[in-house]
Design a protein that fits this description.
The protein contains eight helices and twelve strands. By secondary structure, it is α/β, with parallel strands linked by helices. The strands form three sheets. It has a five-stranded mixed beta barrel, surrounded by four helices. The protein has a two-stranded antiparallel ribbon with strand order 1-2. Strand 10, helix 5 and strand 11 form a beta-alpha-beta unit. The relative contact order is 0.19.
Length: 295
Amino acid sequence: MKINPSLKNKSEKHLYLFDIKLNQQTLEQFSGINYVIMQGSSKRAEVLARKLADKVLKFDSRFFKPVNLVNTSDYAVYRVGNILSVSHGMGNVTIDALLHAVTKVLYFAGSHELEYIRVGTSGGIGVEPGTVVVTKNAYMPNLAPYYTSYELGQRIDTPTNLNHALVERILAAQADNLSFPIISGNSIAADDFYLGQCRYDGAMPARKDHAWREEFFQKIHALDIRNFEMESSAMGAFCNRAEIPATMIAVTLLNRFKGDQVSATPEQLAEFSDRSQAVVINYLLSRANVKLHTN
């Protein structure tokens, strides 16, 4: 981990974004962490924590309720063994804030050997609904391989490539008879859910017609881009600077070549969401330092 040098002489007593005191009791809760698994909603973060308690700690999830370690309504943070299951909200801005907060508290707690994995949903580009995509590289909407931010008026471009060795380890940890398709590919982090992805079903009309959109989708498919989502470029940029291995595991809910509407039933959507969580659980159970917590 590479951290802001000014944090090495810690004077901070309260972490505002999590609304927690940075005292010994709090830091012990974040000590010994090796994996941070991020999801959009607090509900999904809690669901994953329950699954991890069952698979890693062998707790009966019917009688286990994860404890949220933070006091804000913006984020949720659950611990199972040496794993954190956290929520990040929607979009690059919210995940960027979460990354700063969680990395700071983990640094102060002495947890410096980390992997970050975002688990979520996405819109597929030329892949069928239910396909799990493990992201190699993240792109901005203009297809730039870097995340653009502004610091007091100065434009900053930070590379967004994700950790390819981590991608390969995740793929290798999956069973040969996995019941759903899983691929590696690249992702676009769109600026928003509707117009940034040229959806025609938003409250405001998209400015590009179907022919233009079809041509753009063909172009990005040729670049091995297999899905749209909204957080990968901020995560890639942050983790590149922090030197933390990171990637994203996102199931596709629809094939954007075929339209804008998610047509899957609620039952199918729940099962699709389970797929990306199953992939990360398979990976975590393959790691020796996670297996230590199963005994």
